[in-house]
Amino acid sequence: xxxxxxxxxxxxxxxxxxxxxxxxxxxxxxxxxxxxxxxxxxxxxxxxxxxxxxxxxxxxxxxxxxxxxxxxxxxxxxxxxxxxxxxxxxxxxxxxxxxxxxxxxxxxxxxxxxxxxxxxxxxxxxxxxxxxxxxxxxxxxxxxxxxxxxxxxxxxxxxxxxxxxxxxxxxxxxxxxxxxxxxxxxxxxxxxxxxxxxxxxxxxxxxxxxxxxxxxxxxxxxxxxxxxxxxxxxxxxxxxxxxxxxxxxxxxxxxxxxxxxxxxxxxxxxxxxxxxxxxxxxxxxxxxxxxxxxxxxxxxxxxxxxxxxxxxxxxxxxxxxxxxxxx
Amino acid sequence: xxxxxxxxxxxxxxxxxxxxxxxxxxxxxxxxxxxxxxxxxxxxxxxxxxxxxxxxxxxxxxxxxxxxxxxxxxxxxxxxxxxxxxxxxxxxxxxxxxxxxxxxxxxxxxxxxxxxxxxxxxxxxxxxxxxxxxxxxxxxxxxxxxxxxxxxxxxxxxxxxxxxxxxxxxxxxxxxxxxxxxxxxxxxxxxxxxxxxxxxxxxxxxxxxxxxxxxxxxxxxxxxxxxxxxxxxxxxxxxxxxxxxxxxxxxxxxxxxxxxxxxxxxxxxxxxxxxxxxxxxxxxxxxxxxxxxxxxxxxxxxxxxxxxxxxxxxxxxxxxxxxxxxx
Lengths: 327, 327
Fold this sequence. Notes:
homodimer, 327 residues, alpha/beta, D-Maltodextrin-Binding Protein, domain 2, four-stranded mixed β-sheet
């Protein structure tokens, strides 16, 4: 099993190790899965290809890395202005998301099941404060592929850089901003020292959903019991990864602020302009691509039902507790 | 395996059936667990006792039902003004909650693992509109045990009634209000016809956490592989139950409002007075009971770290999406 994550991402890669350990325990080591970090066998961004080709039997990745093959793959991880983590879980299990994604993954000889979720991500680190959409023009921003195409409509120049190259580029000023994950993972890379403005929310990633991918022929050959073990342990690892982020992010954020990070919300006009650009992109893609349209319509139907409820008891409870936690 | 839920609660009891099915699949039916609904073998509120005594090997229940034995058991399900569902998952797995609860459960010859979560619950159905804390005085309110002791400080007269007795009591006016779960479960009981004011949030249940309980001697006798299967399938059923509620509640709320429910937030002074009464209760119990204090201190430490982070990227994303879902 090859992962898209380096070992230093001990939530995401840790979730892969947790999953593999559990599979061994469940089956008395009759069925074992050996995890490999990004680059050990397969580069981090070629996990889908490696599973599709049968180079490896299994992988753990973010499907939106492969949006260039088909933009509909972004629904597997996060559609910008899409769903939060609970909505993603519910849409996948009970809203038809899992089935629609697997119709798509069949074209890549893969079966996929959700495993690991980051929660809502941050908007990233910016050298200069953002006042309005004007400040996005010409901004060299290290940001993931599909979200980059939306930001490009607002004048951003999206950049793809490997983790280790981001810090020096920000320091030299050849890069203006970068997004990574959230406080727990970002802290390890030290961005607050070179780009202290820490923006939220990462509207392109209301949650970051990971997937376990299994080569379809290998999946079909597996005994039913091992298939069931994979389903159960994938479900458990969804909860494990999210729980680890929900524990690690709060303390990391506190330390980041203490060491100079300036926490800032994106200006409202940037949020609105981004939402408009995203909606236009979705309209274009829905017209051109039936699979994208099918997934988009399903997600929008789910989301439009969900938020009116989520702002009642959930937000009512959280908002009261947030006021008291500030008091 | 005996559950505290009737079959009509197809999210909670459905989660139990899902769990049992998964265990059979994982083990090729070498290890099977047979589910029983509340009352089939054991009354719904005696699940802990039945597992403790070895009458049955296993149960699925809400630990706060047994707060009369020890108020610290309420931490297993929901402390009023405690944690939301994601926080509960994270606190249990990474904040020491699971270990502290199992120290306590040892006294009842049980091992427990989280399984199933309802999300934030509603505050319930009230015949008359609430204007201020004055309206709580003498109010006959069907509400769960531990929360009832807090509400009693504000003059509420807590009532314990079985599900089937609530509707006629509200209709006759011998009961003024009731709380149950949330839109999906409440809808089946038709309360909007006799007590249309539907209040939120259910501050006594920021989430409703279920537990799988296994008799400790039976747990220790289980092969390691079956223990691991129980852990994985419990984790998966946590996500399954929450996902089913998150799918079912939105549409049920829409139908309830269409059929006459009036959605209302609790007045701010009721929220504040309840919070104050709860805090006093916790101070008293922490002084008198070391186990309660240990769990309370752990939860408060977790919560005070968590909310400052939860209101950044998570609330930032959700609040923007909520505004757009209203637009």
